[in-house]
Amino acid sequence: MHFRGPAIVCAHRPHAETAVIARLLTAEQGLIGAYVAGGRGRHLRPVLLPGNLVEAEVRSRSESQLPFARVELQESRGPWLGEPLPAAGIAWVTALTAASLPERQPFPALFDALAGLLTAITVAPSARGWAVPLLSYEVLLLRELGYGVAAKRPEEGDWPAIFDAFDRIGRELARYPLAERRADVMAARSIVRDRWSRLIGDD
Question: Taking every annotated instance into account, which residue ranges of this chain make up the domain DNA replication/recombination mediator RecO N-terminal (predicted)?
């Protein structure tokens, strides 16, 4: 594998003393797990925040070898990770993507949709502007993986309908793509729902 192009950081975990294994979503190669030297260091740690858009160069000598990646920051979501609602949204959609997609299988529509959703989360004045796009991304992910879901698109600001759709889609996510990782990944989704509920309660 030799690939260079835009990628969305979806997750990473420590490896050895200073490196990380990053999970990067790309349009052409799909989800890629790659070794990033120095990923825990001062320079690269803020680059590898989930939700960040990076320019990635990925190389491996064979299909069985873990690829090596070099990454350069293109767009940071870091400024929004200190805000409870955007942070919860970013954490959930990146965790969902990392946990449910098979590696090295391209899903260009999901790449474009996730990039658009992350932009919506960071530019919308409140969660009202990205709640419905988040549901649409979940439905698209289920359909791209071969799981149909009957979910009528609610109107923006119709919170009873949004919560109803959110709960129905959540059951499908827990049953199918997240069946083996339900507890830890779905916990991030529960935080989104809780913070949406607080938003409505504050109105």
Answer: 1-68
Do 70 and 102 fall into the same domain?
no
Same domain (yes/no): 113, 191: yes
Q: How many helices (H) and strands (E) does the chain have?
A: 5, 5
Residue 2, token pair as written in the block: 């030799």
**What CATH number is attached to the domain comprising 25?**
2.40.50.140
The tens place of each residue's pLDDT in the chain, 203 residues long, gives 799 999 999 999 999 889 999 999 999 999 999 999 999 999 999 999 999 999 999 999 887 789 999 999 999 999 999 999 999 999 999 999 999 999 999 999 999 999 999 999 999 999 999 999 999 999 999 999 999 787 789 999 899 999 999 999 999 999 999 887 656 799 999 999 999 999 887 55
pTM above 0.90, yes or no: yes
- Helix (H/G/I), strand (E/B), else coil: 57: strand
Shared domain check, 62 and 138: no
The count of structural domains within the chain is 2
* CA 93 to chain CA mean position, Å: 4
Q: Among the three residues 56, 76, 96, which one is the final residue of a domain in this structure?
A: 76
Task: Tell me if 118 sits within 8 A of 80, measured CB to CB.
Answer: no
